[in-house]
Amino acid sequence: MVEVNLWSGLRSLTGGRQVVEVEASDTGELLRELVRAYPALQGPIDAGVSVAVDGRIIAGSLNEPIHPDSEVYLMQRLRGG
């Protein structure tokens, strides 16, 4: 299982949970499993979210490996300027 830390704006969609757990081995599977477990996350995920794995923002890759001990954050998409 992977622990996913949620950005504060997403917590209301998971019953107020700050950390949720899903079974996933890469970023694509992580997003699919999050939606399966918490269907209300579908809208924000479709609109675009940022996934950080072990301190790195994963930009557009759904194949980035995730390990059970990885530190994972799901947040509203970060946009640079």
Description:
The chain has 81 residues and is α+β, with helices and mostly antiparallel strands. The protein contains 2 helices and 5 strands. The protein has helices at residues 27-37, 42-47; strands at residues 2-6, 19-22, 49-53, 56-58, 72-76. Strands 2-1-5-3-4 form a 5-stranded mixed β-sheet. Strand 3 (49-53) and strand 4 (56-58) form a beta hairpin. The termini are far apart. The model has no long low-confidence stretch (mean pLDDT 93).
Number of helices: 2
Q: Could you tell me the number of beta strands?
A: 5
Instruction: For the largest sheet, list the strands in their spatial order.
Output: 2-1-5-3-4
Rg over CA atoms, rounded to whole Å, is 11 Å
Helix content: 10-25%
Overall shape: it is globular
Provide the structure class.
Answer: alpha+beta
What profile does the largest beta sheet have?
Answer: 5 strands, mixed
- What's the average pLDDT? 93
Order of helices and strands: EEHHEEE
Percentage of β-strand residues:
25-35%
Low-confidence stretches are none
Question: What is the rounded distance between the termini?
Answer: 35 Å
